[in-house]
Amino acid sequence: MRNTAMNMVHKLAARDERVLYIGSDPGAGTLRAMSKEFPKRHLIEGISEAHIIGMSAGLAMEGFVPYVNTIATFLTRRCYEQVAVDLCLHNLPVRLIANGGGLVYAPLGPTHQAIEDIAIMRALPNMTVVCPCDADEAARLMEKTLDWTGPIYIRLGKGGDAIVSKAEHGFEIGKAVLMRPPGDVLMVTTGIMLQRAIAAADLLAAQGIRTGILHMHTVKPLDTEALLHAIRGIKLLATLEEHVPSGGLGSAVAETLIDKLGSGLPAMLRLSLPDRFMHNYGSQDSLLKKHGLAPSAIATSIEHAHAASRTSAPQLHST
Amino acid sequence: MIQISPHAEAALTCTLDERSLYLRRLVLGSVRSAGRGHVGPALSLIEMVRVLYDDVLRIDPNNPRDPHRDRAILSKGHGCLALYALLADRGFFPLSELEGFCGSDSILGGHPEYGMVPGVEASTGALGHGLSIGVGLALAARMRERSYRTFVLLGDGEINEGSVWEAAMGAAKHGLDNLVALIDYNKLQSYGPTDYVLPLEPLADKWRSFGFAVQELNGHDVGALRTILKQVPAVPGKPTAIICHTVKGKGLPAAESNADWHHKNKLTDSELDAIRVAVGDF
């Protein structure tokens, strides 16, 4: 996914001279082909993220479309004020390409694990937050970033995520993709949780529980219309995210339902990481598994919640 | 301890001309109307902003977004009363707006906002942002082959921020000789003296070692400011830093080098009388 997104920056640069790549201190050879073809628009600016955000703002004020790239935690935690003031307050078209969203950097520990990035980015007025599920979708997303008004936070997984998105779904920022029609249950996912959701839905189908999947690649602005349409007739709504419970996809969905429905809410299960830093290493998969986000655990959680939802009044479940 | 340079000594004793007094009357009139405002940080800046807007910047108040205009960012956004006075006086918006400072229907807040105030190039107030934005503007001029210059006004307290020094490294890396950093070195920040809060010396050496061509002068000396600002870049291929030795609260004896006048929430009758004595009726 990351290489695809990077290569798309090069392709967009070939098409549009407003496009700049700005890296902090990326891996050796990042976008080398672009650096050779467009050396003036391939900028490596050092480990100075706060400055890079402000510099990108200045460039965007003058008509450029900077694609800023570094590790997700540094784009979010380290220079939050620059993102808020320089980018969002001025509503400038800077694209933040965040490497290693969620637990991609599991072996590197909590400093590199972006587990609250969606929450803090979606709190910012004018910010758009997008979490593609695979490389193909990342490519379609990048096509749409060229002329989008305002800043975008692009949360990338790692290389090699299974391709589950389909070209016929196209890609519109802010438009969810209905991957499977809802049955008794609807899962709403973002990023690479889609792959886990598909596997979990298959396990649930074997148990006789029909489970739809709404892929919310854009967490902000949330596709309210698609969400309200997809929950018609369901008994249980489950959100899946590689993120702490506060402020991410589950929060966004719950807030939207409360704002739009007020009452008559479906039973809801928010599946997420716990509200704490990960003090384990291993791999992204192993940490997801440890915290109940492997397909089998997701299926079991939904099965239990589904059973409870048939015997009790609608309620919001905590993780 | 801060070394007292001849420029700093000169700033203390510098006599202000009628235009400098007039601009101070505008600033203090806004403070009187609003009942609040950053007085000291604005009064130290007046001559720097005055020379920029009167004599240096290529700008057109009737076309404030002219792509060929020079850019100026007040990174120390709390000094905005000086900027507002100059912008109003130069016709970017009516002088009557100054009376609405910080009011609910005003375009003029306690920190300048882009899109609200004609002539304001960036929203500032959170410190340490302006030089990075200025690097982006100057780099864009280079890439677009445009001849505009970018001036960034920084506070001495503001340059406590690490992001300023990140930006300084970036400016030097790119050899942005179309970028000028003006440092309002009044040696007093909100809590107290800069040499107590966070010592900056040797300040000129710092900027020099970061790759800037450095000039130092009395920041209230209109003639000296005019001469130096008309001769940028000081060294081709290098960004310029101009250290302006100033006096916080300059022109208002009660406020000079007095941290109590960093921000005022209310002016008493005796303070209003003291202002009249210092700058005339306002």
What does this structure look like?
- The complex is a heterodimer of chains A (319) and B (282).
- With 319 residues, chain A is an alpha/beta fold.
- Chain A is 38% helix and 18% strand.
- Chain A has 12 helices and 13 strands.
- Chain A has helices at residues 2-15, 32-37, 49-61, 72-78, 80-89, 117-122, 135-143, 193-206, 224-230, 249-260, 284-290, 295-311; strands at residues 19-23, 42-44, 65-71, 95-99, 128-130, 152-155, 177-180, 185-189, 211-215, 218-220, 236-240, 267-271, 316-317.
- The longest helix of chain A is centred in the last third of the chain and has 17 residues, at 295-311.
- Chain B is of the alpha/beta class and 282 residues long.
- Chain B is 38% helix and 10% strand.
- Chain B has 11 helices and 5 strands, in the order ααααβααβαβααβαβα.
- Chain B has helices at residues 6-13, 18-34, 39-43, 46-56, 80-89, 130-144, 162-173, 194-197, 203-209, 222-229, 269-279; strands at residues 71-74, 150-155, 179-185, 213-218, 240-245.
- Chain B has a 5-stranded parallel beta sheet, with helices on both faces.
- In chain B, strand 4, helix 10 and strand 5 (240-245) form a beta-alpha-beta unit.
- In chain B, helix 4 (46-56) packs across helix 10 (222-229) and helix 6 (130-144) runs parallel beside helix 7.
- Chain B is globular, with a radius of gyration of 17 Å.
- The N and C termini of chain B lie far apart (37 Å).
Bin the strand percentage of chain B: 5-15%
Distance between the termini of chain A: 29 Å
Number of strands of chain B: 5
- Report the total helices of chain A: 12
Instruction: State the shape of chain A.
Output: globular
Going across the major beta sheet of chain B, what is the strand order?
A: 1-2-3-5-4
| Sequence of secondary-structure elements of chain A | HEHEHEHHEHEHEEEHEEHEHEHHE
